[in-house]
Amino acid sequence: xxxxxxxxxxxxxxxxxxxxxxxxxxxxxxxxxxxxxxxxxxxxxxxxxxxxxxxxxxxxxxxxxxxxxxxxxxxxxxxxxxxxxxxxxxxxxxxxxxxxxxxxxxxxxxxxxxxxxxxxxxxxxxxxxxxxxxxxxxxxxxxxxxxxxxxxxxxxxxxxxxxxxxxxxxxxxxxxxxxxxxxxxxxxxxxxxxxxxxxxxxxxxxxxxxxxxxxxxxxxxxxxxxxxxxxxxxxxxxxxxxxxxxxxxxxxxxxxxxxxxxxxxxxxxxxxxxxxxxxxxxxxxxxxxxxxxxxxxxxxxxxxxxxxxxxxxxxxxxxxxxxxxxxxxxxxxxxxxxxxxxxxxxxxxxxxxxxxxxxxxxxxxxxxxxxxxxxxxxx
Length: 379
Known about the structure:
Elements: H1 3-23, E1 42-43, E2 56-61, H2 71-78, H3 81-84, E3 87-92, H4 97-105, E4 111-115, H5 116-125, E5 131-136, E6 143-148, E7 163-166, H6 171-174, H7 176-183, E8 191-194, H8 200-205, E9 211-215, H9 216-225, E10 233-237, E11 248-253, H10 254-259, H11 261-280, H12 282-292, H13 300-314, H14 318-323, H15 330-344
Parallel strand pairs: 2-3, 2-4, 7-8, 7-9
Antiparallel strand pairs: 1-3, 4-11, 5-11, 6-9, 6-10
Helix pairs in contact: 2-11, 2-12, 9-13, 11-12, 12-13
């Protein structure tokens, strides 16, 4: 059996497992109304025809502030793809992956963008509010350690004896001992400094730390916005050093997926259409996100750098070229789950089917990567 087929069987088995599990639950978490300001929320843009079927409201939370990485979502909204799927999509900013997952699991949102590995930790602590991934949006995780070249850190081993900075709950920080093991570095040879996420790059710029761990898609744009050049920076990606993690995914709660399968399927399909459009014309995708930013505070140069990282490293890989957008390699995910259990200190032994299903993916023909000849340059 091929990997793709085995994954689909896994997904179908998971759906059956959910139905059995949810039948024994006393109640479903109650969704609460959102409290973000109007500038943080946007409704789907295309008008509904008079004879159109009723639209189902769908509450979506981003992983953080709206960024260029949200271009597939915003493009799908602006082009009416969600409306065509019978969905009225609204979204709000997030406050980091762990917070986003928590709010999804407790019913504040129907769909969210975050990573599967923090979701595993949440599920272990909250078995009654389980969340699952229904499509992977970033085939490679942007987990990294970032340092300035003038610090003398030109390889991971050069981190020995250095001071690293990150928030306490930072995923790459939690996984650093595994990263160190892979590169032949004693993890106890570094000293950690803890700070709020919004201060991470400032600590590095002010040389209060020698390097930081985090998502390259967050760290690099902030450093470039502060006047640094990409030639000033070294980025050590975990995916290049033995930790082949997936990046963010489309998540929902098991309860919501069981009760609203058509809505979940419709959302994933519309999002994939938006992703295909962004891959074809990333400049238009970037401009669409900036135009949708009601705060008007987005910096195009920084957001372009963020999207460049995604286009070059996260969205399209040989695995995606082969299997299509949204899917996973079960063996690869299984290995990274095992690494998460070790790195996060989980007590359970989760399997692929506990965190991911392909049951809500469109047919493979509808989620193919556009041919290279049709993919425009980001300008």
